[in-house]
Design brief:
The chain has 194 residues and is α/β, with parallel strands linked by helices. It has 2 domains: 119 residues, no CATH class; 45 residues, no CATH class. The chain has a 5-stranded parallel sheet, sandwiched between helices. Helix 4 links the parallel strand 2 and strand 3. Helix 4 packs parallel to helix 6. The longest helix is centred in the last third of the chain and has 21 residues. The protein starts with a helix and ends in a 12-residue tail after the last strand.
Length: 194
């Protein structure tokens, strides 16, 4: 089943942009998949861009995974560092890491600040297992909850746009595979799960 999905990811990326949402613990397996299948070479040949989004939680392991990936691919894959303010509200300790900052500057890694999502609304989405679109339709959320959700999504989309990864004006035959890694096994509220 996994092998079949691996094939589907790249094949789908030949015709449409693809986002693969994965937990942090599969980073090595994805790197192996990229190398084993010569995804970078195939991407160049078929005009498919690869981008790794690292959604950090501020923890040491989360930052180490980003550093390892930046070192491993040496600028051959675009990376985006997402500072998840829902899991860490002070990133000074990460910003002060010279090893990370040198790699970010050398590889021109965009850094975006993912906003904090209200605990009340987050818990409701978790408990009812609904996505953002469905949440707007539930009476349980209430008017204030809907406004908080709207505000969160607006801020999140603005931040994602700052990464300038998806160029709306890109040629029709140029697509991308975006791989998002999360620094925590918890749900990170990065996308609409429609």
């Amino acid at each position: 089943m996994i092998k079949r999905r691996e094939k589907q990811i790249f094949n789908l990326a030949l015709t449409t942009p693809v986002i693969v949402n994965l937990p942090a613990h599969v980073t090595r397996a994805v790197n192996d998949w990229i190398e084993r299948n010569q995804i970078l070479e195939m991407g160049t040949q078929h005009k498919v861009d690869i981008c790794k989004w690292f959604v950090g939680n501020g923890g040491y392991d989360s930052v180490q995974l980003l550093i390892q990936s930046l070192n491993h691919f040496e600028g051959k894959i675009k990376h985006v560092f997402v500072r998840n303010f829902g899991l860490c509200d002070d990133w000074k300790h990460v910003d002060e890491r010279e090893d990370l900052q040198e790699l970010i500057q050398a590889q021109q890694v965009p850094i975006i600040n993912f906003p904090k999502f209200s605990y009340r609304e987050r818990d409701l989405l978790d408990a009812t297992r609904i996505n953002f679109s469905q949440a707007f339709l539930t009476a349980e959320l209430g008017v204030l909850g809907q406004q908080r959700l709207h505000s969160f999504l607006k801020k999140a989309y603005e931040e994602i746009g700052k990464a300038q990864v998806w160029n709306v004006a890109q040629p029709a035959n140029k697509f991308s595979v975006d791989i998002a890694y999360f620094g925590s096994p918890q749900r990170n509220y990065c996308h609409n799960e429609d």
